[in-house]
Design brief:
The chain is an alpha+beta fold. It has helices spanning 2-85, 194-197, and strands at 86-90, 105-109, 119-124, 127-135, 140-144, 147-150, 153-154, 174-175, 180-184, 200-201, 205-213. Helices cover 40% and strands 25% of the residues. It has a seven-stranded antiparallel β-sheet with strand order 1-2-11-3-4-9-10. A four-stranded antiparallel β-sheet has the order 7-6-5-8, with no helix packed on it. The longest helix is centred in the first third of the chain and has 84 residues, at 2-85. The termini are far apart.
Length: 218
């Protein structure tokens, strides 16, 4: 009887030790798993942070590239606008007085059709000059006794100075060639216009004056 009891006690103690050992092993495994998970989380956080940094670097570089591209496109657009559509010039004489004065800044439009009476900028003698179209291609111009007539009809203008043929280097009546325009200064006492040069070729006309900014006194 005593032997049987002793055996039972041994068996019970063995079972308790086994349970304790098993429990310890499970706890160790759980601990290892938690450590691995923590390590994985830390690694994931580090990799996520590095990816964010890379994304930030890439986005900054991309923004800089987009900025420079926009800057180049804007510069090209302004260049094309000022080359093919408008022009900016400064008046260096009083030949366009009273509409234009020495020092005024003028913006011209290159693409519009030209008509009689338009104030234009044109190239003559290597200089940009300003004047008003008095006659179109094919018209016959006559200036006599301070009167201007085109195709036999008197021309009434807004200019305050009478048109004179005195000092002109061409003879009247004068027929304007094709693809050319007869241009007179608004300040008619100054004959450095078509009265001296003859008609101005269309290719030398830069455009029609559309805006004037008075710069005198600034």
């Amino acid at each position: 009887m005593d032997e049987a009891k002793n055996n039972e006690v041994k068996d019970n103690s063995f079972d308790t030790a086994s349970v304790k050992e098993t429990k310890s092993q499970v706890e160790d495994k759980i601990g290892d798993t938690a450590s691995d998970n923590n390590a994985g989380v830390n690694t994931g956080e580090k990799s996520g942070t590095s990816q964010k940094k890379k994304k930030k670097k890439k986005s900054t570089g991309r923004l800089a590239a987009e900025f420079f591209i926009k800057l180049i496109v804007t510069a090209l657009a302004i260049w094309a606008l000022c080359t093919f559509v408008i022009g900016i010039y400064i008046v260096h004489s009083n030949s366009g007085y009273p509409m234009l004065k020495d020092g005024d800044l003028c913006i011209i439009y290159r693409l519009g059709e030209l008509h009689s009476g338009d104030e234009v900028a044109y190239l003559e003698g290597g200089k940009i000059r300003f004047g008003r179209i008095a006659a179109m291609p094919g018209d016959e111009v006559t200036i006599s006794e301070e009167n201007l007539s085109v195709n036999g009809y008197g021309v009434f203008e807004d200019t305050v100075y009478p048109t004179t043929g005195e000092g002109a280097l061409i003879s009247f009546p004068y027929t304007v060639p094709e693809k050319a325009y007869f241009i007179l200064n608004d300040y008619r006492s100054d004959v450095t216009d078509s009265r001296s040069y003859g008609a101005i070729a269309k290719k030398n006309i830069k455009g029609k004056v559309i805006f004037v900014m008075r710069r005198r006194g600034i």
